[in-house]
UniProtKB/TrEMBL annotation:
GO cellular component, one term: plasma membrane
GO MF annotations in UniProt: ABC-type transporter activity
Claim: Membrane is one of the keywords in the record: yes
Protein name in UniProt: ABC transporter permease
Assigned keywords, A-Z: Membrane, Transmembrane, Transmembrane helix
Pfam families per record: ABC2_membrane_2 (PF12679)
Record-annotated membrane-spanning stretches: 20-40, 154-176, 207-236, 270-295, 302-321, 349-376
Lineage: Bacteria, Bacillati, Bacillota, Bacillota incertae sedis, Caldicellulosiruptorales
Amino acid sequence: MKDLIKNEIIKMFYRKKILIGLAVILISSIVGVWGTIAIIKSTSPENEIKITQQKIANLKKERMKTKDPIKRQKIDEQILQSQAYIDNLKISMKSTDWRKDVKNQLAKLKKSMKEATDLSLLDSKEYYREQILEYEYCLKKNIKPYTLWQINNWTVMNIFLGLIIFLLPFIVFIFASDIVSNEISQKTISLLVTRPISRFKIALSKFISATIVCSALVIISEILVFIITGLLYGFIDLKYPITVGTRYRKHGLELIPIYGSTYIVPLGKFLIYALLLQLLIITACCALSFFISAISKSNSTAITLSFLMVYGIYFIVSPISEVVSKLNFLKAFLLYTYLNPLDILENNIATNVMISIMTPFVSILILFGYIVVFLLTSLKIFNKKDLLV
């Protein structure tokens, strides 16, 4: 089995498309980091204040036109949140004592938490508690909270992941979508299956080799971005607090975070969890690609179907669900929804699909479901397929 996997990996690196894949990863990394740094620089306090002031002006105009009391209440909440954001920015620009600033912020947050109505996400007790947890942890560990406009390897990586994740299926499809169909079209598969090796081992070795190559290329590129940006702009403390695991309850058409559900993990541990999830996500993408390759007879068909299965269906369902909110749950069944490991850990998936029972554990189960269903189906198809024609 080891020799089969080794041979499959070697064959993958002899294919011309390896250069295309490497080029995509290199270009997307360079452009992604450059764009990320530009985004961070655009969030300087001065720019943020101007943007937020314009947002408040627009909200006030919208409020004047709105007669619905519930909508007006939500707009009032947004105005208050935006004004508080401006006030905090102005204070942070003047202050030099970060511990004093954090204590002042804690006092305001605790007061806001007591007054929170728990009727909307931005005015829920857990929304304020989440920020309180971060600030209290920073005080306890003597870690200065970073701001959105500060450039370090974590602020870059956080935004960079959101940008690069869009290309993850594309990278996987380049290497894995025709791993079977390519050999069928070139009629080299018949030589392989006539050898005294079970079809199960042949198929499994192809899947494992594709997963190893895709995982190595994607994760190594992400680690390099994290290290290089750290050397250029500074490394963030790996003890820095990250809030994860928020759970939600249904309230009308909204999801409200459950009080006490969010907890803190240090950044170092968070990155390990994210790395493991990234491996799981890539494996799920490879399982889907392997399935499509097993049912396809040509390279072009395999690649086209792969794109339609991940990108096409999502970009059809997503706009429809925006119009018909009751259809949001459909996104829970699409692989594209689970491509960002940070969204899974922070449980942003729940608010995306508007399902209150969604948790990081449920997201992981769905990814495992993708792997098991598509891999087993692929192995069955490969075993019954007429490959000697």
